[in-house]
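Propose amino acids for all 277 sites.
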């Protein structure tokens, strides 16, 4: 499940694996960019040292540029058409459907982070929306007080003290890190479409579902992406810094400690005043 927050920019992260099962992965293909649960260790402060965490900036910039071209030439025009001609209630139900498909990953990682009560609440939310919500098309659980959470395996590793030491921008996949990239296989195997596409539905059903998932997610990113373009002098740096801060925000459950920045230059000791003659 992906949340798209006000005042936080989001960037597309598309998973391109196993071409013959492409549609199975398409619902997992997009991840929040600048969206941005348990206590984290003090050494995670390294995530705020943006230059140090991006040793492969040249390669990352190339990946970013390629992904941006694909987005502007293909995904953005299709998403704009979708927004213009599909009624908002229908688009909302489509978004609910794909959020619900990704919710088993939230449930799993809530338990892995030791959030037992939340894990049971998230499990109930998934069951309610999958049944009473007609396969997740309607968010019935929220009206019952079962709020939507955002957990993934990258957050779980962060909660248990694994550092994000290297920023990575994967072509098509988008922003990640040496820690957060571990969520890709976990989110894949916890998505029901992964198994449905292999054992039940097959390509004739999963391909259209996968394409619709990519279009829906890009449509939800439309506003934030425009804000990025208008606000950032260097979009790459904007995406990188916002992503790292948001990941830290999520790991600390929205309450991170004050950032500590190291001085690049040592302060000169104060000069002693000459005694008055």
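Proposal:
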């Amino acid at each position: 499940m992906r949340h798209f927050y006000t005042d936080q920019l989001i960037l597309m992260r598309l998973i391109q694996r196993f071409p013959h099962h492409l549609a199975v992965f398409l619902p997992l293909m997009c991840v929040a960019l600048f969206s941005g649960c348990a206590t984290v260790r003090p050494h995670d402060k390294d995530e705020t040292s943006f230059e140090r965490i991006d040793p492969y900036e040249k390669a990352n910039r190339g990946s970013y540029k390629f992904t941006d071209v694909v987005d502007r030439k293909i995904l953005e025009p299709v998403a704009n058409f979708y927004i213009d001609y599909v009624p908002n209630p229908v688009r909302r139900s489509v978004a609910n459907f794909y959020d619900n498909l990704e919710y088993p990953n939230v449930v799993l990682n809530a338990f892995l982070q030791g959030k037992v009560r939340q894990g049971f609440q998230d499990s109930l939310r998934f069951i309610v929306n999958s049944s009473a919500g007609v396969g997740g098309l309607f968010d019935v659980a929220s009206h019952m007080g079962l709020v939507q959470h955002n957990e993934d395996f990258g957050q779980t590793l962060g909660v248990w003290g694994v550092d994000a030491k290297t920023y990575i921008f994967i072509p098509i996949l988008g922003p990640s890190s040496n820690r957060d990239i571990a969520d890709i296989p976990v989110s894949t195997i916890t998505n029901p479409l992964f198994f449905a596409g292999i054992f039940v539905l097959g390509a004739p059903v999963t391909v259209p579902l996968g394409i619709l998932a990519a279009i829906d997610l890009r449509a939800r990113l439309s506003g934030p992406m425009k804000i990025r373009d208008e606000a950032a002098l260097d979009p790459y740096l904007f995406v990188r810094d916002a992503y790292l801060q948001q990941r830290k925000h999520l790991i600390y459950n929205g309450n991170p400690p004050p950032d500590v920045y190291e001085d690049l230059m040592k302060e000169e000791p104060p000069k002693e005043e000459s005694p008055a003659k």
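The chain has one domain: 19-251. The radius of gyration is 21 Å.
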